[in-house]
Amino acid sequence: MIASTFEASLALDAQAELGEGPLWDDDAGCLYFVDILAGRVHRFDPRSGAARTYEVRRLVGAVAATDRGDLVLAVRDGFARLDVETGAVQDLARLPSDASDLRMNDGKCDPAGRFWAGTMALDERAGAGALYRLDPDGVVSTILSSVTISNGLDWSADGRRMFFIDSPTQRIDVFDFDPARGTIANRRPFVQIAPDAGMPDGLTVDAEEHVWVSLWGGGAVHRYRPDGSLDAAVGLPVAFPTSCVFGGADMRDLYITTAAVRLSREERARQPAAGGVFRCRPGPAGRRANRFKG
Ligand code: BGC
Ligand code: CA
After folding, report:
1. Which residue of 60, 103, 149 sits with most ligand 1 atoms within 8 Å of its CB, as the best mutation to test the pocket?
2. pLDDT tens digits, residue range 7-31?
3. CATH of 4-280, one of 3.30.390.50, 3.40.50.1820, 2.60.40.1180, 2.120.10.30
């Protein structure tokens, strides 16, 4: 049974091709997100309405805040840092394996400040991607291979479980997580999503340990209870939500990034806000993003 449904409205008409990777910076009170295909990081301050664009000039899949006040980026074939004052981008590390026809996709920091991000083939062929972990000392480890579209990641509040999505599986999986070592074990399905509801994409775990997942092609975000049952749904006027995160002064604004890339010309005319950032207040609070410690 769905307990409740909500509607999200447009917060920023970003016109992104593939808006993704929303990050709420609770120090600055602003939202960062990426347009993967345009190679851009966007910053949005909802209090003033101010928006700023950083040109990364490379495919950029995800961002995380660091404890130095800059951002760490998952760029096409590795990791980089972005100075949010000057906009300068500096390489940090390369992926350990050949990634010439792959690109980075979703990423997030774990509770100990390591940055996790995964890849997918540009043609989305099965099993070509992987999930990587960037440690504060700059060393990159391959954690999972044979991933197709590496997507949503987040951790339970006690840091003992990690949620992960490989989109074409139509599942949200959960692993046991060792916060001290940064290792995962015992993969199992948490939620199975019917294909007609859309493909599971980005996710966030809220303060009540419920999991919010964006449904690519499904025009909705779902909230799942810890037992895996569906609790709530957020509807959108666009078909391709990509990811979501809580933000705002009370951490109760749910920000949802969206994409236009898969829409035909006719669909773009009917979904003029596709690529924008949407927002709603469904009730629960989110948790602060973990920062990269390096
Ligand atoms: C990727 C898209 C992909 C989609 C599927 C997104 O994170 O960036 O390229 O088609 O996930 O869920
Ligand atoms: Ca994604």
Report:
1. 149
2. 999 999 999 999 999 999 999 999 9
3. 2.120.10.30
Q: What's the chain look like in SS3?
A: CCCEEEECEEEECCCCCEEEEEEEECCCCEEEEEECCCCEEEEECCCCCCEEEEECCCCEEEEEEECCCCEEEEECCEEEEECCCCCCEEEEEECCCCCCCEEEEEEEECCCCCEEEEEEECCCCCCCEEEEEECCCCCEEEEEEEECEEEEEEECCCCCEEEEEEHHHCEEEEEEEECCCCEEEEEEEEEECCHHHCEEEEEEECCCCCEEEEEECCCEEEEECCCCCEEEEEECCCCCEEEEEEECCCCCEEEEEEECCCCCHHHHHHCCCCCCEEEECCCCCCCCCCCECC
Whole-number Å distance, alpha carbon 240 to ligand 1 midpoint, is: 9
Q: Is the CB of 290 under 6 A from ligand 1?
A: no
Residues 104-126: tens digit of each pLDDT = 999 999 999 999 999 999 999 99
Per the confidence metrics, is the pTM higher than 0.90? Answer: yes
CA of 64 to the centre of ligand 2 (A): 14
